[in-house]
Amino acid sequence: MVVLFVSIIDSVRMAKVFGKSRVFGVGLLLLPFIFYLVLAFGSADHDECRVAQGEVI
User: Fold this and answer.
1) Helices and strands per DSSP (H, E), number in the chain
2) Are 10 and 4 contacting, i.e. CB atoms less than 8 angstroms apart?
3) 39 alpha carbon, distance to own chain's centre
4) Dist. CA 57–CA 54, nearest whole Å
5) Domain boundaries, the chain
6) Whole-model pTM above 0.85?
7) From residue 2, how far is each of 5, 27, 36 by CA, in Å?
8) How far apart are CA 8 and CA 23, in angstroms?
9) Cα separation, 50 vs 31, whole angstroms
10) d(C-alpha 47, C-alpha 6), whole Å
């Protein structure tokens, strides 16, 4: 149960760092082979400042 919770948080944070929505983060968790390719080859830019230090989601 804890692993699922942490996986959801990690996926949503990954989506936020790339400027995507929370729904995209859930997609990263459920269909990673599609959504990570969208991040890799799409126009999303990585910016660590989008997620504040210590922010959970």
Assistant:
1) 3, 0
2) no
3) 9
4) 9
5) 2-50
6) no
7) 5, 19, 23
8) 11
9) 23
10) 21
Structure-block tokens of residue 12? 């949503």
Contact of 56 with 25, CB cutoff 8 Å = no
DSSP letter at 45 equals -
Kindly calculate the radius of gyration of the chain based on its CA atoms and give it in whole angstroms. 11
Q: Please give the residue that has the higher pLDDT: either 33 or 1.
A: 33
pLDDT, tens digit (0-9, with 9 covering 90-100), for 2-48: 999 999 999 998 898 888 999 999 999 999 999 999 999 998 888 77
d(CA 7, CA 25): 10
